[in-house]
């Protein structure tokens, strides 16, 4: 859900005008960042904003590549196997290989912290 | 199947869904599409791991520069390092726009504060005069 308040409207426009106010809640992003490792303690005010937008671009990139797999199979429903195929086929997504080789719901997240 | 990651640490499902559907509308404007909920979960988890990966890389860069606080420059360098350099330009533009809007907001806020202080002073003076008038009158 969009967070109303301080940040709503600040990033309206952005890269694609259609997206309107920034999408991903900054507090949540900060929480995830701090779980990246014990060393990540201090984050400047602008960093979560960059992360929020980077995340959006990343999801779009992964979506596009996954959709290409769906289309090649002449289907209209994008499923998780398409995402896995896209990850395996793209060097850029090597860091996700462990995620897709297990079921997302059973993933052991401690590997990544 | 048990979820390993708590909901508080996940990215909001509705937002991930919106980003995915927006992209699919661009990719296939003339055709119907559908996204399985497991695929949405996969996108959400992938994005979370992306944040971890990018954070850890940016943090290393920050430490190498002997600083304690990770900043936007560290993140841009990290993106180059993990081969997502095509993100740097649009992110730079987005950040510049945010700073511009935020600067405007800060100026407005300080103007509002000054106005409020002036009004308060005016109110206090009027109140004092009224009280003095009552005492002498």
From TrEMBL, chain B:
What name has this protein been given in UniProt? Transcription factor CBF/NF-Y/archaeal histone domain-containing protein
Q: What is its main location?
A: nucleus
Q: Where is the composition biased (Basic residues)?
A: 112-129
Question: Where does it reside?
Answer: Nucleus
Q: Which UniProt keywords apply?
A: Nucleus
GO MF assignments = chromatin DNA binding; protein heterodimerization activity
GO cellular component term of the entry, any? CHRAC
Q: Does the keyword Nucleus apply?
A: yes
Its BP terms in the Gene Ontology are: DNA damage response; heterochromatin formation; leading strand elongation
What InterPro entries does this protein map onto? Answer: CBFA_NFYB_domain (IPR003958), DNA_Pol-Epsilon_Subunit (IPR051377), Histone-fold (IPR009072)
Task: Give the start-end ranges of region Disordered.
Answer: 104-137
Residues forming the Transcription factor CBF/NF-Y/archaeal histone domain are: 10-79
The record's SUPFAM superfamilies line, in alphabetical order, gives:
Histone-fold (SSF47113)
Instruction: Using the record for this protein, list the coiled-coil segments as residue ranges, or answer none.
Output: none
Q: Name one Pfam family in it.
A: CBFD_NFYB_HMF
């Amino acid at each position: 859900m969009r967070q109303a308040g301080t940040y709503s409207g600040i990033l309206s426009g952005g890269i694609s005008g259609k997206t309107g106010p920034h999408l991903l809640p900054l507090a949540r992003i900060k929480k995830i960042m701090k779980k990246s490792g014990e060393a990540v303690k201090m984050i400047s005010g602008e960093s979560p904003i960059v992360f929020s937008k980077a995340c959006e671009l990343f999801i779009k990139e992964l979506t596009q590549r996954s959709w290409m797999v769906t289309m090649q199979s002449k289907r209209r429903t994008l499923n998780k196997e398409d995402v896995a195929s896209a990850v395996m086929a793209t060097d850029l997504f090597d860091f996700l290989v462990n995620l897709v080789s297990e079921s997302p719901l059973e993933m052991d997240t401690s590997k990544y912290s | 199947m048990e979820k390993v990651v708590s909901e508080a640490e996940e990215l909001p499902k509705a937002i991930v869904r919106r980003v995915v559907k927006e992209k699919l509308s661009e990719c296939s404007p003339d055709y119907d599409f559908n996204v399985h909920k497991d695929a949405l979960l996969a996108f959400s988890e992938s994005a979370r791991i992306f944040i971890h990966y990018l954070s850890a890389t940016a943090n290393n860069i920050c430490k190498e520069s002997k600083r304690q606080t990770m900043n936007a420059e560290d993140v841009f360098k990290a993106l180059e390092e993990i081969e997502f350099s095509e993100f740097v330009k649009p992110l730079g533009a987005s950040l510049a726009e945010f700073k511009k809007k935020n600067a405007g907001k800060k100026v407005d806020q300080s103007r509002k504060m000054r106005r409020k202080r002036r009004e308060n002073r005016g109110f206090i003076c009027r109140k004092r005069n009224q009280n003095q008038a009552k005492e002498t009158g």
